[in-house]
Design goal:
Length: 254
């Protein structure tokens, strides 16, 4: 049994409550699908906690932009990443802890395989940037999804969209809420299924509670965890580079 988190986005209140929930279940093995940073007000604390508690973390598009530049980001996301870089990037006199965080973020892997299962932030075709959207399903096979399904054998775990759901190789899709937050492989599929684990730090499925999954054999369970959103918002409002729209989205879960 293990937990998968993703899209923390520098939200330490959410991440702390999620780890408390994971501990309450007796789960000690946790992996992260990336986007530790971006949008939120506590990048240092979130990086430290992920480094301490996760067996591995993958590189998300915000983690990548932190190191390489946010060239394709919208202005709000770009300003947030620039502020985050100022908090994290080592200077000439920086200590070991600062350098260790930056080295960790600079060297995050793009993908991880365990048996027949693949873990990635975005898509096997573009690990950091391509979105796998359930809204694209409905017209049968497409070249994009044929390539994605050809790239793994059994289950593909992703984040990036912040939308918890299942997409099967029968080209069927259901949200986590439609599944009552539980899916057991190989329901809905012939052989392969894509599992979006949702977002810890910035949910976008109109449920503002943090979302992550527990994997127990062939059973996937989405967990929703309440946290002190107002505390996170208050911190964000003190940082001029974090646009007010980013904190407003937290309240609505959009």
């Amino acid at each position: 049994m293990f937990a998968i988190i993703s899209d923390v986005h520098s939200n330490i209140e959410a991440l702390t409550k999620v780890f408390e929930d994971i501990e309450s279940l007796g789960v000690t093995d946790v992996v992260c699908l990336g986007d530790i940073v971006g949008y939120g007000p506590n990048p240092l604390e979130c990086v430290d906690l992920v480094m301490q508690r996760c067996r591995f973390s993958l590189k998300g598009n915000h983690d990548e932009a932190l190191v390489q530049g946010a060239y394709a980001f919208n202005l709000r996301a770009q300003k947030a990443i620039e502020w985050t870089r100022d908090q994290l990037k080592p200077g000439f006199f920086s200590g070991a802890a600062v350098r260790r965080r930056w080295e960790y973020l600079s060297n995050l892997p793009l993908r991880h395989e365990e048996g027949a299962n693949l873990f990635i932030h975005g898509s096997p075709r573009d690990p950091t940037n391509e979105y796998i959207l359930a809204t694209e399903i409905g017209f049968g096979p497409t070249e994009k999804f044929e390539e994605i399904f050809a790239s793994f054998e059994r289950m593909l775990f992703v984040g990036h969209t912040h939308m918890p759901c299942i997409i099967s190789d029968r080209y069927e899709t259901k949200t986590s809420s439609e599944l009552d937050n539980k899916y057991t492989y190989p329901d809905m599929c012939e052989q392969k299924v894509i599992v979006n684990v949702g977002s810890v730090g910035q949910p976008r499925d109109r449920d503002n509670r943090s979302c992550y999954v527990i994997v127990d054999g062939d059973t996937i369970t989405w967990r929703r965890v309440e946290y002190d959103i107002e505390k996170t918002v208050a911190r964000m409002e003190q940082i001029a580079q974090l646009d007010a729209a980013l904190s407003a989205r937290l309240k609505e879960g959009i």
